[in-house]
Amino acid sequence: MTDAIVLDQVSKTYDGAAVLQPTDLFIPQGQFVALVGGSGAGKTTLLKTINGLVALTAGRVRIDGAATADLDGPTLRRRIGYVFQEVGLFPHLTVAENIGVVPTLLGWEPARIAERTTELLALVDLPAALAARRPAALSGGQRQRVGVARALAARPSILLMDEPFGALDSVTRVALADDVRRLHDQLDLTTVMVTHDIAEAALLADRIVVMAGGKVIADDTPKTLLAGHADPAVEALMQAPRRQAARVREITGE
Amino acid sequence: MNSGLLSLLPDRLAWHVVLSASALGLGLLIALPLGVLAARSPRLRWPALALAGLVQTIPSLALLALFYPLLLLLSNLAKGAFGHGFSALGFLPSLLALTLYSMLPILRNTVAGLTGVEPAIVEAARGVGMTDRQRLWRGELPLALPVIMAGVRTAAVWTIGAATLSTPVGQTSLGDYIFSGLQTENWAMVLTGCIGSAALAMAVDQLLGLVERGAERRDKRIWGAGLVGLTIGLVAAVAPLAADFAPHPSTYVIGAKNFSEQYILAELMADRLEGHGARVTRKINLGSAVAYRALAAGEIDAYVDYSGTLWANVLGRTDNPGRAAVLDGLRAELKRRDGVVLLAPLGFENAYALAMRRDKAQALGIRTLADLAAKAPDLTMGGDLEFFSRPEWANVERVYGLRFKAKRQFQPTFMYRALGSGEADVISAFSSDGRIAADGLVVLGDPKGALPPYDAVLLVSPSRANDAPLRKALAGLDGAITVEAMRAANLSVDRDDHKSSPTEAARALEKGLRTGQP
Ligand SMILES: Nc1ncnc2c1ncn2[C@@H]1O[C@H](COP(=O)(O)OP(=O)(O)OP(=O)(O)O)[C@@H](O)[C@H]1O
Ligand SMILES: [Mg+2]
User: Fold this and answer.
1) What is the DSSP letter of B499?
2) Ligand 1 within 6 A of A150 CB?
């Protein structure tokens, strides 16, 4: 199996402060990776080095074997779906236009874009009637779904998501998370998702990468990490889902 | 409001619209890209905004006035380099000044609008793979549009308002009503200009508002209606000028300085030319020095000036060899220097003369400038806007040793008022002014002959020197206007009740000439 995303000694420094220490990361095609860690750990920074939104201080990134330094930024980013931490829908464009923005940049035929938009609204489980609305007239959950649809519009093989369910209530959150995992499998994507929520990461991802202070401090399957880890910081993080699971078992009396 | 007042409206409105629209268009063309660059580069932002702000602090009237000498200099340089210059008067200086003036609100709002776009949106635009240019056109500009349009609307209102100030540099506009009305205390005329330009500004603002709303809602019908409205308005307003650009025999440009007598004589000449089937445009309210230079440059074809003014200001003479010698000297010298033809003295004099209220003069025992010199330190002298900077004044001051307690400047109209209210004790009056007799003033004698004679003379530009239709139309004016006739005409325009428009006064004056001749 080839690696869809490779980070080779990637680092990032802002004004002399190392935000991301030299990092190696290999993500095989088709894997769903959750990137977890405390606030300021460098998760967003790492994610943005993948599609070039953050310029590397050192190292190199390879996408499907090609070094991103050799590609121009806009071309690269049109090939990689990205869901922003703050959603980032364009307020002056309708839902349909927001979803169709990357295909438009790629010069697709309008008819094909329209067809694709309809398809995507169905895919992310939104009523077609929303197509003509502006983002301001949507609920938070609907906006997140539009964000996911926009990221998937041009059929990327890689999807990057930065806390896509950040501001949602737990019911909506779970429903959307399930949908995202379903889409990942259905579309054969390689997905990297940043999240604060370890339980969510454990339930959705094939692999969890834990970051702290700009470094990867643990990188394994949810099962292995939940079983126990030598690093006390990782152990502390894993306490929450374990306790939740134990409490659920206790209540249901299993 | 009389029909004479409104007959000039189409022409004035048309020029006002052409001028404001061109200035705004040019302002947009410069300020918008500059705003985009300034928004991107903080290093450019500060100087650009500071410069535009600085321009704004120059009073618009002064800004307009400053462009005339600047362009004149450039024109002369061009003449030296390429053989011919360009018109430094009228449209060009007005356009440039108003363009500069319109730039600040557009620039400022473009920068504010673009830098105010949420960073998350900018990031998202980059994230979906927009290039810098796409980000600008598809993201930042549409989002900044309401702010930018607000700037454009402000600029439009400012420009339309400030365009009224282009009158003194010889550009026809609605300001002609305001300047002439102020000069002749014809408030109906002033109001016509004010209401006209205010209504124009409001209409344009509303239509631009419509475009803005349509763009914001991305409703083609709304912004389309706004644009169609603007286009129809522009075309309809400018239509009267189409005739000016159509082929026709010849258009004569008659000039006038900024007082009643000049308006009346310009109308008289224009009337005669039009009676002979010629087309005439008028450039009125020109500054005294501007008028002669414009004539020499061929930007106006004819106007009336005064021998003493030309003697002192154009030829730079301070001596006074007597009436006939001054006229002969001028005829030869103006022709030699500038090719200007002194066609005819009109027969009356409009001299600068110092005048006082009769009661005050008698109480102080003042009859001549020599008497005045002794009392001057206790008196306030009122002059028109240019009097104190004229060489004649310097000469009078020197010859009689005049030292006043204070010197104040007034619009001619208000100068007479100031004498009445005691704000001035002595004023620089004009001997052909009807108000001297009407207000009961005395003109102080000039025993030392410090003031030259001021015979009204008809001047013709070098290019019209041998123009037969012009000469024919203006024939018979030689010595035809008596000072009494001119005073009566001036008073009919300047008095408070039963005011005449300059056009009406010119017709009355013309009738007097006809019957006065065999
Ligand atoms: N443009 C920048 N300039 C300077 N420092 C930055 C910049 N962007 C991020 N940082 C710093 O880098 C560190 C990591 O930021 P990053 O956004 O990657 O954290 P994160 O793990 O995504 O946090 P969160 O969970 O709060 O989103 C933080 O300390 C942040 O302040
Ligand atoms: Mg983050």
Assistant:
1) P
2) no
* A234 Cβ inside 6 Å of ligand 1: no
**Strand duo B426-430 + B380-383: pairing:** parallel
Which residue has 């600029």 as its token pair?
B155
- Dist CA A250 CA A247 (whole Å): 5
B202-222 pLDDT per residue, tens: 999 999 999 988 888 878 899
**CA–CA separation, B489 and A190 (whole Å):** 94
- Among the listed residues B114, A104, B32, the one whose alpha carbon sits nearest the alpha carbon of residue B122: B114
The whole-model pTM stands at 0.77
Rounded Cα–Cα distance for residues B124 and B122 (Å): 5
| Amino acid (1-letter code) at residue A151 | A
Given A79, A84, A92, which is nearest B124 (Cβ)?
A: A84
Q: Which of A12, A13, A39, A44 to mutate to test the pocket of ligand 1 (most atoms within 8 A of CB)?
A: A44
Report the range of poorest mean pLDDT among A162-166, B86-90, B323-327, B448-452: B86-90
Residues A26-39 as b or e (16 or more Cβ within 10 Å = b) = ebeeebbbbbbbee
pLDDT tens-digit series, residues B404-422? 988 888 877 788 888 888 8
Does B120 touch chain A if contact means CB atoms closer than 8 Å? yes
In short, whether A42's Cβ falls inside 6 Å of ligand 1 is yes
Test B139 with A51 for CB contact under 8 angstroms. no
The pLDDT value recorded for residue B518 is: 36
Which of A77, A88, A105 is opposite residue B120, by nearest beta carbon? A88
The pLDDT of residue A17 is above 70: yes
Instruction: Locate B479 and state its tokens.
Output: 């010595």
For residues B274-298, give the mean pLDDT: 85
Q: Beta-carbon neighbour count of residue A222 at 10 Å?
A: 20
CB contact under 8 A, B121 and A90: yes
Amino acid letter, residue A243: R
CB contact under 8 A, B126 and A73: yes
The ipTM (two decimal places) reads 0.90
How sure is the predictor about A76, in pLDDT bands with cuts at 50, 70 and 90? very high
Q: Which helix (H) or strand (E) element contains residue B262?
A: helix B260-275
With CA atoms as reference, the chain A residue closest to B127 would be A77
Cβ pair A234, A213 in contact under 8 A: no
Helix (H, G, I), strand (E, B) or coil at A108: coil
Mean pLDDT of chain B: 87
Query: What domains, with CATH codes, occur in chain B?
Result: 3-243 (1.10.3720.10), 251-349+454-515 (3.40.190.10), 352-443 (3.40.190.120)
